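Could you join me in thinking about how sequence relates to backbone shape in a protein? Would you write everything just below, so we can both look at the same thing?
***
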Amino acid sequence: MKNIFFTISLAIIILPLMILNDHSNVEAASIKNPIANSNPINFDASLIIGQVPIQKVGTEFDVPVNLVYGGKKVCGVKAYLSFPPNMLEVVSLTHGPIFTMEAVKKFNNQTGAISYTLAPGGSCTTQSSTVYTVRFRTKASGNAPIHFSSAYAGSGDSTGMPYELPTYKIESTVWINNDFAALAARSASLNEKLIKYLESRSKISNYSQ
C-alpha cells in the first residue's frame, strides 16, 4: 500500500515537468530523420527549419535552415521565412559552409520577414548542409511559429538553365516560457520533500512493527 501511495504521489509531482520537457522534444526527433513521419515521394530536396529548446524572454538563440539532399544536384536555395514580430526579432543572418554566395539577404523585424537566397561557393552540390542560420531574440512569451513564406531548392539542366526542384518543407515553433525554469525547480523541490516525508513515514511504520 505504501509503495502504491509513493508511486501515485511521485507521478503527480513529476508529470507536469515531463509534459513541459517533452514539448521541446516532440518535433526535435524529426531532425534525426527529417522524413520519418512523412512520405515525400517525388521530392528532390528537403528544407528544414531546425527545432530549438524552450526559451526565456530576452534570450538569443540560433535556428538553422537545413537542406537535405534528395538525389539531384542543388545549385541554389531560396528560403524566405516569416515569424511573429511581437514575439521574435532577428539579430543576424549567417550563411552555412557550402552556400556562401548571397544573392538576397535581408530581414524586417517590423513585419516579421526574412529574405535569403544563396548558392554554393563553387559548383552545384550533392551534399546535405545548413543553408543559413538565424539568430533570434525573444520578446514575449507564447508559441512563436516560424514558417516558410517562399522556399525551394534550385538546380540546372545540361544547358545551364535553372529550374525549381520539388522541395519538401518542415517548419518549426519556438516555445517561449519564463515560468518553465521556476516550475522545474519547484517540482524538483516538492519531489525531494515528498520522498523525504515518505521515507520518514516508512521508518516510523517499520519501527512500530
The radius of gyration is 24 Å. Confidence is low (pLDDT under 50) at residues 1-40.
